[in-house]
Amino acid sequence: MTDAQQFTFKAETKQLLHILIHSLYKDREVFLRELLSNASDAINRLRFEMLTNQNVLDPGAELKIRIKVDKDNRTITVQDTGIGMTHDELVDHLGTIAQSSARKFLEAAKEKGQDASGLIGQFGVGFYSVFMVAEWVRVTSRSFRPDAQAVTWYATGDDTYQVAPAEMTERGTRIEIKLKEDAAEFAEDYRLKNIIHKHSDYIGFPIYVGEDEKPVNKQTSLWRTARNEIKDEQYKDFYRQTTLDFEDPLLHIHMVTDAPVQLCALLYIPANAERGVFSLRKEDGLKLYSRNILIDEYNKDLLPEYLRFVQGVVDSEDLPLNVSRETVQSSGLMPKLKKALTNQVIKELEALAKKDAEKYSAFWSEFGVYFKQGIAASPADVETITPLLRFKTNTNPDAWSSLDEYVSRMKDGQKVIYYIVGEDPKAALRSPHLDAFNANGTEVLLLTEPMDSFMLMGLRKFKDYELKSVSGAEGDGAEPPKAESEAEKIPEGDFNTLIEKFKQALGERVTDVRASNRLVASVARLVDADANSSPNLQRVYKYLGKEYAIPKKVLELNPSHDLLKNLLKLEEGSELQTIVIEQIFDSALLVEGLHPDPSSMAERVQRIMEAALKK
Ligand code: ADP
């Protein structure tokens, strides 16, 4: 046996230690994550060794990590039954910086000068991070090789460390940490348990704290477990524990693939779009693990914006361990992961729609708006999203229909997809613009959410069919079905007189008054003067709160309507004639959702009632 030897740390290790010891980094708790991840690696390596070699020390010892706290002495001990280290390995591994990310950390720290503390969380700095909380550290290890001697390594964070023979009968590594005074908070079981839950819950080996017989961590990384070994209840449990959402998720997606990237993912679609008040998830984003180690709590680069409601975990072995977020992003792997994940989510949603229309409807009611936004915001995704869209229509107002279903029900010769934009489905269904369509059963999409107007900016076509508003004027290319009223029309001369009366009464408020061939049950409707102008865009401005003057419109009248026939019979220039004209115009504004002051109508309506009751 040799006596204790003193070694000097390599220059860069010295620098690193210096920064860590003097750092004011607030999340010092990550030191435990680093130690546990090293312990887990060591156990993994032993397990690998044992695949081919049974000649190891303590072959039957449980593969585990135990943490003990001595509050009075302010020490923590983390012990694993992993592969252990020989004397030379200890000197090699804990005397120099093994990780490239720690080197990168040093480079970045040099650039930043004094305040490098913010960088610590971004770069996993490995074992040395323990010096953020430690006065001294003693590592005692015994290699799996049956003939190896136990050794111990001791450092206080200055330039040197000591290595000496030690007594240790069991295989593995024990790390003893004397906490700095200002780190005494970590000498509490509950505190350590919390840190484990937060950062290391899915380490694949049991982590015990104190004398507990029950491990603190969940251990099984559910996403790495074979699908056929997982019960539905476990999927739900996992979701509950990671989100604290008390409602079961609508859907889980468990994905395991090796090409083109190695990837295990367990994704969830929540039942509600709103996060609950108690949710553990503070932001959108997926948890990103690399080989069971959490790299990013809220990664937003793994799915497109429009799928940001998806919760869960992604784990890829292709990601380098402990790399910074910046490095992850630039690694070229992220776009591949994103593509694979997005395709899978879309595929599963399409399958759900086929298999369980009711559930898909529930999904759509909650999350449809995200997809509509996606169409508005990202032209590249339009084709992917469109098959997932669902709409209510005038002929199917209670069910959600896909555009494919709409197309399959189109009338012979129908060349475009019709839609109506409105404030709400009931109002839309009563719109005079639907008269002709309702009369001959032509289907029209009801677009009654604010987001629909934005969606329309990105969705102009589906397959070969253009989308056209039914509220357009004649000549807009929408070629509506012919379905004029069967009632007799007002003779042309009389109708022209009537038009003049309207023009006189409404003056500048309309750009024109004319007959319509698209009205059946309704008296009148308002259309844009310019066939190319977009009532939808007007709505978008309104929703964006932009200065918004009511656009002047053309008032179209139904030449067969009894109301107009009776209006003509009224005494020339009578007051009633004028107020009825005013009311027809106001009602038309109202159904368009354009009326600036609906309450102003009350008085006029009362006068109309009085006139009606006089008879
Ligand atoms: P990294 O773990 O990323 O390689 P660290 O600085 O954290 O970097 O650790 C350096 C090396 O020390 C590890 O690669 C490993 O070989 C060795 N090591 C650390 N902790 C343990 C342990 N608990 N058991 C066995 N070897 C360990």
Explain what this protein looks like in three dimensions.
It is a single chain. With 615 residues, the chain is an alpha+beta fold. The chain has four domains: 215 residues, 2-Layer Sandwich (Heat Shock Protein 90), CATH 3.30.565; 131 residues, Ribosomal Protein S5, domain 2; 93 residues, Rossmann fold; 129 residues, Four Helix Bundle (Hemerythrin (Met), subunit A) (Up-down Bundle). Helices cover 37% and strands 18% of the residues. The protein contains 20 helices and 21 strands. The strands form four sheets. Strands 1-6-5-4-7-3-2-8 form an eight-stranded mixed beta sheet, covered by helices on one side. Strands 9-10-13-11-12 form a five-stranded mixed beta sheet, sandwiched between helices. The chain has a five-stranded mixed beta sheet with strand order 14-16-15-18-17. A hairpin with a 4-residue loop joins β2 and β3. α16 packs across α19. The mean pLDDT is 87. Adenosine-5'-diphosphate (ADP) binds next to α2 and α3.
